[in-house]
Please model this.
Amino acid sequence: MHKVIRCHKYGEPNVLQIDELESRVPGPEEIRVRLHACSVNFPDILSCAGTYQDKPAFPFSPGRESAGEIIECGNSVKNFVLGDRVMLWCGSEYDGYAEEITLPASRAFPVPPGMDYVQAAGFMLVYGTAWHGLMDCGNLVSGETVVVHGASGGVGLAAVQLAKAMGAIVIASAGSDEKLKIVSSQGADHLINYNTEDTRQRMKDLTEGKGANIVFDTVGGKVFNASLSAIAKEGRILIVGFTSGEHSKAPTNIILVKWASLISVRFGQFSRIYPERTRKNHDNLITLYEAGQLNPYVGKTYKLVDAVDALDALKSRQITGKVILVI
Ligand SMILES: NC(=O)c1ccc[n+]([C@@H]2O[C@H](COP(=O)([O-])OP(=O)(O)OC[C@H]3O[C@@H](n4cnc5c(N)ncnc54)[C@H](OP(=O)(O)O)[C@@H]3O)[C@@H](O)[C@H]2O)c1
Model:
């Protein structure tokens, strides 16, 4: 038997329950993994609330990624052996907050030497979203200016590190000076506190009036509106998320006059439709990690059974970087 944290009805994170489940023997193409760490992401809160795009059938585990060691392999699994350390993309289909999981081997990726399970559990979603956003959607070119809104969050901090690694000048925004200090230590060139400063004016001043080439926006609302005024010609605003809870309306006349693009970033959907492209992006990210250019920043860990506390902390903006459940 093993513990799985699952949602049986929609609501605040405290609707989550600890269930005891039997192990499932892997099918020919599957692996069974003893998990050591599970990642907590903002979309997990939305899944609990029933407001995320994907709505799996009850009961479901809101986690999307984890890491552990393989303890059983199906007969047809060729690329892994018992004991291999793997990071797993559970998506919304498999139990992300659990002590153990059985899933297709195609959802497993080797953990590189030197990376521990805590970092590995939280690697794929944040860096995968950052790469898909900045590179596939944003076509980032070295030397361009990238503004990352919500830079203190898991995805935001990954985008700061990746943009920097790809040669961008990085302007990072967040909601407190304390968080911005950490963001600065992760490579941001310039900082904006969107709670105390005029974001639009700061973006203009920091780009000497030219505006930003790319905006990676995880927050929405007033910072999105500021970005519309402070985007460069041929600039790209990447719509990644709405942690502010506000969905802005974009005036098409401003988009036209500014010669700008609004681009949707949907990493989960992309990884489902294009698994090979996702794997290639992941390989590029691991190469950057191994070269020391990416350094997963874990702000806090919780025990698996304290998943509700972890989600509450994320929701109330107490964390900088990643939150991970350890087993
Ligand atoms: N499009 C995609 O493919 C994709 C993939 C993954 C995640 N996402 C989205 O990206 C966003 C960030 O996800 P994450 O896991 O990185 O989240 P996270 O770690 O919780 O970070 C979110 C950040 O948003 C800021 N924020 C601003 N207003 C907030 C509010 N009212 N409540 C909570 N946070 C607020 C917080 O920073 P301050 O306290 O400094 O303001 C916080 O650090 C979410 O909207 C998520 O759904 C999108």
About this structure: The first strand starts at residue 2 and ends at 7.
